Amino acid sequence: MTASQPLILGEMPSLSKLYVNAAATAARRRILGSHADGVLPAVSHEVRDVRPDVENLTAYQHLLGETASDVLPAGFIHALAFPVAMSVMNRDDFPLPLLGMIHLRNVIEYRRPVRFTEPLDIVARAATLRAHRAGTQLDIVAEVRASGGGDICWSGVSTYLAKGVFLPGIDKASAAVAPQGFSAPDPTALWQLGVDTGRAYAAVSGDFNPIHLSVLSAKALGFRRSIAHGMYLASRALADVGAAKGDAFRWEVAFEAPVFLPARVALDISTAETGDGGWLRSGYVAWSPRSGRKHFSGSVAAL
Description:
Belongs to the enoyl-CoA hydratase/isomerase family. Pfam families: MaoC_dehydratas (PF01575). The chain has helices at 15-32, 54-64, 74-89, 197-205, 215-219, 230-241, and strands at residues 7-9, 45-50, 102-110, 120-132, 135-146, 152-163, 189-193, 249-255, 263-273, 279-287, 294-302. It is of the alpha+beta class. Strand 10 and strand 11 form a beta hairpin. The model has no long low-confidence stretch (mean pLDDT 89).
């Protein structure tokens, strides 16, 4: 999909208002019925001159285990761009229900260090509706550049699943295959995640999706308990990779099974090196030490 001229938003969208509107839209669709036609909105949303808050940055770094620095972590930039992406998914002409959307995958390119003093322009659009064995998936593309027409310094493609939603005109032959079997390696770390993990990450990311906040709010959307944010898990794994990732890198993560809170999560990080000790790539995988079920996996590779 090629987006038309962007819709310039006067200010950063409020995630809380977007979730309230999404709930109202879901209720309206239940009453009136959905008339989705499988066509994504051919427009992008943009917010200009975004200035990160240094106190929020510090709180994020502390929660995720990132080193204190004036450089924005790649996951922090994702959180910064998330309200713009959400505003696209909250449009009246967006064909899938926003609430209950499941996060499947992220591919992020962090092309150069971005400092908190830099004003940024953020643009997001929807792309590539396609079938999934459990419903319909799509990509949300976000790009961040220095304000005033600078080069793209960060870009991300987030893949989401609307479970149980099968749109007309979507070729089911393209549905994703089921995950393969998994044999857990020896862990390099063990995380203890409290029941308040979702609320703690929401406080630094602004993502107050009800599925992450409490048992009651999660059950209202079909989950047996609250679940950890996918980007909390991925960003914490990235922080565990540490300085080996370098200044510019491609970061990938694929989510398989949700982490229901509270939880223990085992993590293994492996790093490949060149003969002279130069770093090439880190891979990581996380799983439940109790059941052995894989939660997510990914990689970080130098650009």
